[in-house]
Design goal:
Layout (H helix, E strand, L loop, with lengths): L1 E3 L2 H6 L9 E2 L2 E8 L10 E7 L2 H12 L7 E5 L3 E6 L1 H11 L9 E7 L5 H5 L4 E3 L6
Parallel strand pairs: 4-8
Antiparallel strand pairs: 1-2, 3-4, 3-7, 5-6, 6-7
Length: 136
């Protein structure tokens, strides 16, 4: 979370920060979900360390949705967010590729993780992405 922005970043908007800003990294658990649960379970796919929800959602958009023209539905609350293909897009994709509904994730649910953040904590997670090492 960004606790205090510098003057330059403050002028750009709430999602901007630099090394002069005061920020605290937070942890976000990412789950994939499907239209049906018969083929695959909705499971945790990883954990992200980041400063803002915006960074997390941008990372998921850019790394898990391969067709950049997809219309996405995004909702972000205080402790929870989701990003998914709009239902009409999912139906069109399934028809074009002749895939059964539920084969590919429809979207991803993200939860702010408020548990212990020790090193052992991260080793229990399959994938760990640290976005704090990349500058905004």
């Amino acid at each position: 979370m960004i606790t205090k922005q510098c003057d330059n970043c403050n002028k750009k908007g709430k999602n901007f920060y630099c090394d002069n800003c005061t920020k605290i990294a937070e942890y976000f658990d990412v789950y994939s979900y499907y239209t049906t649960t018969s083929s695959k379970k909705n499971t945790q796919i990883g954990r992200i360390k980041a400063y803002t929800w915006h960074d997390v959602l941008e990372y998921i958009k850019n790394n898990f949705f391969y067709d950049k023209s997809d219309s996405l539905r995004i909702d972000c609350e205080k402790d929870f967010a989701f990003i998914e293909k709009k239902s009409t897009e999912q139906v069109a994709v399934n028809k074009r590729t002749k895939k059964l509904a539920g084969e590919d994730p429809v979207g991803y649910k993200i939860y702010l993780n408020k548990e212990n953040k020790s090193i052992e904590f991260h080793s229990k997670v399959k994938n760990f992405w640290d976005l704090t090492t990349v500058t905004n």
